[in-house]
Specification:
Blueprint lengths: L2 H12 L1 H16 L5 H34 L4 H31 L9
């Protein structure tokens, strides 16, 4: 099997618990959609984005490693690109996690306790 495919598979296997949680979040959003539409929408978007990031970024890293040898990037250039990709990935993940936090508090009834 191609070494690139093996590298991606290893990365996905290490992320398997989170991939399962993201998938369960997506399913639960659909199951509870009629009862809690806004929180479920936030959860669906957040879990889908995090699942997509978790699947796409290992592929991105493999492509970058291949570009390192094909285009003759220096270690400094490679490090800069890898850092930029990491920052973008973390920003996307943070925004998705923010949606999950919003889902927790969306459409809550006001408490009558003082």
């Amino acid at each position: 099997m191609n070494t690139s495919i093996m590298m991606v598979m290893r990365q996905l296997i290490t992320q398997a618990p989170m991939l399962i949680v993201y998938t369960v979040g997506i399913v639960m959003a659909f199951v509870y959609w009629r009862r809690y539409p806004r929180p479920c929408l936030f959860t669906l978007i957040a879990a889908s984005v995090m699942l997509l990031v978790a699947l796409v970024f290992p592929l991105t890293h493999i492509i970058l490693f291949q570009a390192l040898s094909r285009f003759g990037w220096t270690a400094s250039m490679f490090g800069s690109v890898l850092t930029a990709v990491g920052i973008v990935g973390n920003l996307i993940h943070a925004a998705a996690f923010g949606l999950l936090i919003a889902a927790v508090f969306a459409d809550r009834a006001v408490s009558q306790q003082a």
